Amino acid sequence: MAYPATFCLTMQILCLTLCSLCLSSSAFTTHDYSDALEKSLLFFEGQRSGKLPSSQRLTWRADSGLSDGSSSHVNLVGGYYDAGDNVKFGLPMAFTTTLLAWGVIEFGGSMQTQTLQNAKSAVRWSTDYLLKAATATPNTFYVGEPNADHQCWERPEDMDTPRNVYKVSPQNPGSDVAAETAAALAAASIVFQHSDPSYAAKLLQTAMKVFDFADRYRGSYSDSLGSVVCPFYCSYSGYQDELLWGASWIHRASQNASYLAYIQSNGHTMGADDDDYSFSWDDKRAGTKVLLAKGFIEKSIEEFQPYKQHSDNYICSLVPGSPNFQAQYTPGGLFYVRSGSNLQYVTTSSFLLLTYAKYLSSNGGVATCGSSTVTADKLIALAKKQVDYILGDNPAKMSYMVGFGNRYPQHIHHRGSSLPSVHAHPDRINCGDGFQYLYSGSPNPNVLVGAILGGPDNNDNFSDDRNNYQQSEPATYINAPFVGALAFFSATPQQPRNCKTVD
């Protein structure tokens, strides 16, 4: 959809104003944010499973998992290893994909041409796999035996642990993982609707089928597959939030009225009335409300008015000084939720702050916090503080993005990064032999450029220790929302933010 020239001019002026505001007195330049953005995408190449393309830029990686799915006579090669291990978990991979796609949808207009192409490639590497998982055999969702995998420390190229295929079915439902997969495919269909319309149509059609399965056979995959998904990725929030999230994304991608009716009929029982204050691979409620609030803010869809109020409540909970303020921040100013992989909550909240600021800016709106209001500018400033903290503007003067800045962690909890590459050490390193590298005090021999780690504790302390996985392990779902946030701040006055839209 193309907007009238007068609207575009107005948006350019608005974007330039926001750009000058959020980058003034910055510790980082637009070039720094652009560099961090490109590196945040490069990280996903380090997490690839399957046959690597000739364009692979992290060349210390090689092909892996080439027989995935064969034990069940299906092709499940590809996708991403979720973190520092060699398992392809469906729920975090699908969430990663949804957030990558959402970042492209909202802020792809701020990306340079090649960067946008790299972002789309990151999305497609996952959606190609998710399409296989959803269609190769009914509702297959992830590969790898996690308990066996965690008893080894080996490169993905050397994997010899079982690559069992785990799936949900009518008899063993998994509405959470299925509905998140539907959300990922639907969001990605928007990303590709102009550049590859036939692929986009396939993504959306598959999303609808997978969502129908998720809704028809309700249940949590933690109950069906608890012995292998717990404690790694149990769905603690249940599956209702994913159903509402999936329906919301399919509605946005398709504008099909039946999904609007579904949201209206089911929202109250699926978390629409809850004010939840974190957004993660497990709990989608805050993200769903921001997504749906767009319909009221920008299009005055009355059915979505309650989501504006709940989004305000979430946003205001993050703003110090607000009557609704509930968040905890470290002495150095980092948003803090819990000790394990805390930066995942920082990157998701930063992305939501910027996305909501964009929606509010479209019609001069504000977030209502009790008797006070919070402007889009305030949300941008708060998100910027979190982004800058991750990139090195923090008490430790440590960048928590590997390969960015002058000082960053050297001992990350990641098998492929910590072991010699197959190019440097062609001989197989067996399951137990790799532990010498886990316990070594030497820096990782392979730099996993762009990886964002779990991050510091509630007092801004960080242990650069491979064994401290809560702080030193990267994950795709930490990086994914950061892509959109970095795209926002990488925009320059010559690149007004998103005058054109993809949906």
Automatic annotation (TrEMBL):
One Pfam family in the UniProt entry: Glyco_hydro_9
Active site positions: 413, 464, 473
Domain Glycoside hydrolase family: 33-486
Source organism superkingdom: Eukaryota
InterPro entries per the UniProt record, alphabetical: 6-hairpin_glycosidase_sf (IPR008928), 6hp_glycosidase-like_sf (IPR012341), Glyco_hydro_9 (IPR001701), Glyco_hydro_9_Asp/Glu_AS (IPR033126), Glyco_hydro_9_His_AS (IPR018221)
One annotated GO molecular function: cellulase activity
Keyword entries, A-Z: Carbohydrate metabolism, Cellulose degradation, Glycosidase, Hydrolase, Polysaccharide degradation, Signal
Signal peptide per UniProt: 1-27
SUPFAM superfamilies for the chain: Six-hairpin glycosidases
Keyword Oxidoreductase (UniProt): no
Keyword Signal listed: yes
Any single GO BP term: cellulose catabolic process
The enzyme's E.C. designation: 3.2.1.4
Reaction(s) this enzyme catalyzes, per UniProt: Endohydrolysis of (1->4)-beta-D-glucosidic linkages in cellulose, lichenin and cereal beta-D-glucans
Similarity comment text for this entry: Belongs to the glycosyl hydrolase 9 (cellulase E) family.
PANTHER family: ENDO-1,4-BETA-GLUCANASE (PTHR22298)
Protein name per its UniProtKB record: Endoglucanase
